[in-house]
Amino acid sequence: MRVGVFASLLALAGAALGSATKRWSTDVPSGFVTTNGTTFSLDGKPFAFVGTNAYWLPLLESQADVDSTLASMQAAGVKVLRTWGFNAINGSELANATATNLTYYQLWNSSTWELNEGPQGLQRLDYVIESAAKYDIKIILTFTNNWFGYGGAELYINWIVGAPATHDEFYTNPAIVSEYQRYVSTIVNRYMNSSAIFAWELMNEARCSGDLLPSGPNCKPGSGTLALWYQQQSDYVRSLDPYHMITTGGEGQFYWAQPATYWYNNTLVSDYNYNGEAGEDFESTLGLPNIDFGTYHMYPQTWYPELDFPGSNWTVEQFGLDWIDAHISTAMMVGKPLIIEEFGALGLTNKTSIYPVWVQEALNTYHASIMPWQWGQLNLTEPTHILKYADEILDGATPNDGYAFYPNQTDVWNILLNAAAVQESRSG
Ligand SMILES: *[C@@H]1O[C@H](CO)[C@@H](O)[C@H](O)[C@H]1NC(C)=O
Ligand SMILES: *[C@@H]1O[C@H](CO)[C@@H](O)[C@H](O)[C@H]1NC(C)=O
Ligand SMILES: *[C@@H]1O[C@H](CO)[C@@H](O)[C@H](O)[C@H]1NC(C)=O
Ligand SMILES: *[C@@H]1O[C@H](CO)[C@@H](O)[C@H](O)[C@H]1NC(C)=O
Ligand SMILES: *[C@@H]1O[C@H](CO)[C@@H](O)[C@H](O)[C@H]1NC(C)=O
Ligand SMILES: *[C@@H]1O[C@H](CO)[C@@H](O)[C@H](O)[C@H]1NC(C)=O
Ligand SMILES: *[C@@H]1O[C@H](CO)[C@@H](O)[C@H](O)[C@H]1NC(C)=O
Ligand SMILES: *[C@@H]1O[C@H](CO)[C@@H](O)[C@H](O)[C@H]1NC(C)=O
Ligand SMILES: *[C@@H]1O[C@H](CO)[C@@H](O)[C@H](O)[C@H]1NC(C)=O
Ligand SMILES: *[C@@H]1O[C@H](CO)[C@@H](O)[C@H](O)[C@H]1NC(C)=O
Ligand SMILES: *[C@@H]1O[C@H](CO)[C@@H](O)[C@H](O)[C@H]1NC(C)=O
């Protein structure tokens, strides 16, 4: 999830991808989730689920709060949790991080980062994974962020390349790739024996451009820059860990020869989610041998202010249905499982009216698993305080970015409880 603008790029012709890397072993240890054609399986039985997102879980100071959150998730029927496997700061942020007891794993103060394995560092992530195992919840762990939040790609770029740089150098600069892989190997080696890991995820919402840095001439529709990076990094993770699943963490943008269009202010607009501008090519990426299942995200209101413009020929609900169907068609063609890994609508009324329609489409058409953004937990023992940026614990409630849903919002809550029951009935 990230709110912001998106820069337009030129269209170019496509580049083919190939990979010789051997697919992973299907003979996985007990308790590890694996794939079986278009579905997941666990210990020889189908595994369908409702999951959720809580990036803030490793940021909580109190282990009791981590436990109570995972216990509530378990009680609601949640089986899979996605959280950030990264938290990076730079040297200038260290004094504040120490003063506020902020979780961080990587400290950047030169062209090479330092690991924090202390009680304010990876020990917090250790506890989340240990507690998840206790509550029978499996974790999707993300290695870095396309956006600045909690120290993403642009920290690597700033410290290794410096100005002037483009965002896409993250995917191609050998020194950056090497520092990224050093972090990936740290995390994978630490947790690779744990059945509480559902899957490794290469990056949150990888795109050619970021928050601050633009994309360069080598990252444009058809360049295959992102797809090549996905291939190289998924092969790398597979070389470290033969058993856990691997996925992209991408928003699921397409690179179609005839992209979807919509009317805005009497102009027919080419939709950037379908024309390759973001850099992703969902179809070719899902076909990579070490990308085990597809992810996509869905925030129509944040993505398209045009939706409410007079004369526009679409709605929030309809965009979502089309987006869901497009991903289902691809997953069907490729023959791999699919997760709506993040989705959201703004406002309680919109959530209540739109979620059932989206959820039914995903669950019924493809038996796809769903992971709404984002979980809201009440009654934390932690007092009110800022975590970082505008993210705060307020009166014992976890951060609300407009997409959070809390157990006191029963209409929304029940939609997810009902979906969890449907998925449970499809599992072994
Ligand atoms: C794998 O899929 C097949 C058919 O789609 C199904 O019959 C079988 O039960 C599944 N096995 C597991 C372990 O999920
Ligand atoms: C920081 O949090 C830890 C728990 O994660 C706690 O034990 C410690 O007392 C806290 N330190 C400060 C300075 O608040
Ligand atoms: C370090 O973080 C500070 C505060 O977020 C920011 O102003 C600065 O640009 C960062 N420096 C680098 C090199 O990323
Ligand atoms: C970062 O490096 C600068 C200059 O080398 C040094 O003055 C500063 O103390 C370092 N900060 C940290 C947190 O290591
Ligand atoms: C440290 O925290 C203060 C107070 O929240 C803030 O104004 C300042 O920008 C922070 N400094 C850095 C380097 O993040
Ligand atoms: C994981 O298991 C392997 C094989 O049993 C062992 O060599 C390794 O030390 C274990 N790693 C961790 C982090 O426990
Ligand atoms: C909007 O209108 C265009 C042109 O008629 C059409 O191609 C497109 O599919 C429509 N979009 C939606 C979401 O109905
Ligand atoms: C809509 O188009 C008109 C005429 O081209 C233009 O003046 C106006 O600024 C446009 N409005 C928006 C919100 O783009
Ligand atoms: C609900 O969705 C409509 C249509 O996009 C939008 O205009 C409205 O602002 C949303 N409500 C809230 C509270 O965000
Ligand atoms: C939170 O605490 C209040 C007051 O103690 C209680 O009424 C409510 O049921 C609790 N909510 C949850 C979700 O546990
Ligand atoms: C539920 O809890 C959230 C977070 O504390 C609060 O903002 C909201 O007003 C509460 N009630 C409802 C009906 O959403």
Structure description:
By secondary structure, this protein is an alpha/beta fold. It has one domain (5-425): Glycosidases (TIM Barrel, Alpha-Beta Barrel). The protein has helices at 63-75, 94-100, 122-134, 153-160, 169-172, 174-191, 225-240, 282-286, 300-303, 316-334, 348-366, 410-426, and strands spanning 33-36, 39-42, 45-47, 51-53, 80-84, 88-90, 106-108, 114-115, 138-142, 197-201, 245-247, 261-264, 267-270, 294-298, 338-343, 369-370, 385-388, 391-393. It has a 5-stranded parallel beta sheet, covered by helices on one side. Strands 1-2-3 form a 3-stranded antiparallel beta sheet. A 3-stranded mixed beta sheet has the order 6-7-8, covered by helices on one side. A hairpin with a 2-residue loop joins strand 2 and strand 3 (45-47). It is globular, with a radius of gyration of 20 Å. Mean pLDDT is 93; it is low at 3-23. The structure holds 2-acetamido-2-deoxy-beta-D-glucopyranose (11 copies).
